[in-house]
Design goal:
Number of domains of chain B: 1
Order of helices and strands of chain A: EEEHEEEHHHEHEHEEHHEHEEEEEEEE
Number of strands of chain B: 2
Number of domains of chain A: 2
Structural class of chain A: alpha+beta
Keywords (chain A): ATP-binding, Nucleotide-binding, Transport
Strand order of the largest sheet of chain B: 1-2
Largest sheet of chain B: 2 strands, antiparallel
Strand order of the largest sheet of chain A: 6-7-8-3-9-10
Structural class of chain B: mainly alpha
CATH architecture of the largest domain in chain A: 3-Layer(aba) Sandwich
Radius of gyration of chain A: 23 Å
Pfam families (chain A): ABC_tran, TOBE_2
Distance between the termini of chain A: 38 Å
Number of helices of chain B: 13
CATH class of chain B: Mainly Alpha
Largest interface: A-B, 24 and 18 residues
Radius of gyration of chain B: 24 Å
Family (chain A): Belongs to the ABC transporter superfamily.
CATH topology of chain B: MetI-like fold
Distance between the termini of chain B: 22 Å
CATH architecture of chain B: Orthogonal Bundle
Helix content of chain A: 25-40%
GO molecular function, one term (chain A): ATP binding
CATH superfamily of the largest domain in chain A: P-loop containing nucleotide triphosphate hydrolases
Strand content of chain A: 25-35%
Oligomer: heterodimer
CATH topology of the largest domain in chain A: Rossmann fold
Strand content of chain B: under 5%
Order of helices and strands of chain B: HEEHHHHHHHHHHHH
InterPro entries (chain A): AAA+_ATPase, ABC_transporter-like_ATP-bd, ABC_transporter-like_CS, ABC_transpr_MalK-like, ABC_transpr_MalK/UgpC-like, Mo/tungstate-bd_C_term_dom, NA-bd_OB-fold, P-loop_NTPase
CATH superfamily of chain B: MetI-like
Number of helices of chain A: 9
Chain lengths: 334, 289
């Protein structure tokens, strides 16, 4: 079981309110991702759930039990840290065994769980090595192994992939998702990378300046962003946001069009511009169109066969059905 | 060094320093070795003659010799024990953010700036003195009779004084080591259910192993040669109760004017110090790689 409920949880450091009171429900077995720009309070929120920081207000319920004043060890949660936080003078085996040793799990049970975790994480050959002799990805797996053997009611991940290189990050992302499918345990995952959030989450919580901007499934956030911030944050490349006259045409203060919802033509269309940079990825082409008079650049995602180059004149036409409208305060208009 | 030219140039450039160091080391050692085989007494310098192994035999059969070696060991081990344990404790205390941290840290370091004879004099006359020392006042306050420290516990008194002087050094080295301990590791251990004592045993102590090794090695080098504190306070007494090897050699040379005997003692001390050094490097040196 791993149902976590936050009721009016707030955090203040002195006079500075990092997290204004917020409510959040995390169902058992869900993969929840906290995402937001740096400094939005997502790591602090995770540390509040872990018990590494004290809440200033409100209650944290784990499986219906009030855990607000429980010590981190008693909450039955396991955490994977950004720096992995492995114990450098212990072998991989001892690192993984440490939480069980502290919980006084019998030795043969310990060995059974270590072997199972090592097999699942491809660590069997490295059990006698020290963390210093491992690569980044292997260290990450040891940290996950140390979390698994505790059989926690929920896993907490604090930007676990940010110290890995791009290729490894994609691999580990898959491994963590597979792990979640296999264990079916609640996982809370903090990241600033919206691609990680979109690919892994059952439920995304978008945070901005400590406030929850929107909670929903990846597709919900993509299709119906609640406000301009979420619209700009979710999706890659970023949504194009226009204000002023263009927006007034649609009866809104701000409108947004995703790069994939803009058509490109060399003959004619709604907005005229000049190609600044074009990025040919093979599968797609990203065009950064300048001199449209609407915004500094407009990002357009087009198919890989488009052979436009720097300086070419193009006409852009937005897909009228896919335009998002926002009012003066940034909220969505339907 | 990349090429043969730069390698030989490097050897040439280092040579003066190495040669100077060798001269500085070998000439005194050679002279001491030479004197140790002579009958050479400053009261009768004209009558110097070859003595063979007599000086060594004399030193070895002196009952004070083994007492002095034992005292040296007790002194070194006692001070190491107090400074390492106390150093860890104080370092952990002042590592936490507290009010007036800067001043507290300076106060903790300050005993190191006091010269050994001065420190010993302060302890002798103002702290441990049986009639007007602070310890005597405390004893009287509680209705106990004051202890004459240097008469009753001469070696312990010296251990306390020397430990007081070296505690700042140990604290400083251990504090820097403590400050480099990763906070996330501590939090991970906390989440893993390790109570404070386990976190200390499994994380803090192994992390500080290298710093503790440095403290033990450096202090041992200096503690084998403790001399000023003994001279100022007990003068090695009562009897030989607080005489270490260094002080025994001083007695032979400056009180009995027996240069030959003192040189023999010096050579024995050098051999013992090397013995200790090899033993120490074997035992704790693996922490340094």
């Amino acid at each position: 079981m791993g149902r976590i409920t936050l009721e009016g949880v707030a955090k203040r450091f002195g006079d500075v309110e990092v997290i204004p009171p917020l409510n959040l429900d995390i169902e058992d077995g869900e993969f929840v991702v906290f995402v937001g720009p740096s400094g939005c309070g997502k790591s602090t929120l995770l540390r509040l759930i872990a018990g590494l920081e004290d809440v200033s207000d409100g209650r944290i319920l784990i499986d219906g039990q009030d855990a607000t004043d429980e010590s981190p060890a008693k909450r039955g949660l396991a955490m994977v840290f950004q720096s992995y936080a492995l114990y450098p003078h212990m072998s991989v085996r001892k690192n993984i065994a440490f939480p069980m040793k502290m919980a006084k799990v019998p030795q043969d049970e310990q060995n059974r769980r270590i072997d199972a975790a090592a097999k699942a994480l491809n660590l069997t050959d490295y059990l006698e090595r020290r963390p210093g002799q491992l690569s980044g990805g292997q260290r990450q797996r040891v940290a996950i192994g140390r979390a698994i053997v505790r059989e926690p009611s929920a896993f907490l991940f604090d930007e676990p992939l940010s110290n890995l290189d791009a290729a490894l990050r994609v691999g580990m992302r898959l491994e963590i998702s597979e792990l979640h499918n296999r264990l079916e345990t609640t996982m809370i995952y903090v990241t600033h990378d919206q691609v990680e959030a979109m690919t892994m989450a059952d439920k995304i919580v978008v945070l901005h300046a400590g406030r929850i901007e929107q909670v929903g499934s990846p597709l919900e956030l993509y299709l119906r962003p609640k406000n301009a911030f979420v619209a700009g944050f979710i999706g890659s490349p970023k949504m194009n946001l226009f204000s002023g006259e263009t927006a007034a045409e649609y009866g809104a203060a701000t409108i947004g069009v995703r790069p994939e919802h803009i058509g490109v033509s060399t003959e004619g269309g709604k907005w005229k511009g000049r190609v600044g940079v074009s990025e040919h990825l093979g599968s797609d082409t990203f065009l950064y169109v300048e001199d449209t008079g609407l915004a500094e650049t407009i990002t357009v995602r087009s198919d890989g066969e488009v052979r436009l180059r720097h300086g070419d004149t193009v006409w852009l036409t937005p897909n009228e059905d896919k335009i998002h409208k926002f009012d003066q305060s940034g909220d969505r208009i339907d | 060094m990349a090429t043969r030219q730069t390698a030989s140039l490097a050897r040439l450039m280092r040579a003066p320093a190495i040669i100077l160091l060798l001269i500085w080391m070998l000439i005194p050692l050679g002279m001491t070795l030479y004197y140790s085989f002579l009958n050479y007494n400053l009261l009768n310098p004209a009558n110097t003659s070859w003595a063979g192994w007599f000086n060594y035999q004399y030193f070895y059969t002196d009952p004070a010799f083994f007492e002095a070696i034992w005292n040296t060991i007790v002194l070194v081990m006692g001070v190491l024990l107090i400074t390492v344990c106390g150093g860890i404790a104080i370092a952990m205390l002042i590592d936490k953010p507290i009010f007036g941290q800067g001043i507290v840290r300076i106060l903790v370091i300050s005993p190191f700036f006091v010269m050994p004879p001065v420190a010993a004099l302060i302890w002798k006359n103002m702290i441990m003195h049986p009639s007007y020392g602070v310890f005597a006042d405390i004893a009287k306050f509680f209705g106990a009779s004051p202890v004459d420290w240097f008469a009753t516990y001469p070696l312990l008194s010296i251990i306390i004084i020397v430990a007081w002087q070296w505690l700042p050094f140990a604290t400083l080295i251990l504090l820097t080591s403590l400050q480099s301990l990763d906070g996330e590791q501590m939090e991970a251990a906390e989440m893993d259910g390790a109570p404070a004592i386990s976190r200390f045993i499994y994380l803090t102590l192994p992390h500080m192993a290298r710093a503790i090794t440095v403290v033990v090695l450096i202090q041992t080098i200096f503690l084998l040669g403790i001399y000023a504190e003994i001279l100022v306070t007990t003068n090695g007494g009562p009897g030989y109760a607080s005489t270490n090897l260094t002080f025994l050699i001083y007695r032979a040379a400056r009180l009995n004017f027996d240069i030959g005997g003192a040189a023999a003692g010096g050579i024995i001390a050098v051999i013992l110090a090397n013995f200790v050094a090899i033993f120490l490097m074997r035992a704790v040196g693996k922490n340094l790689d």
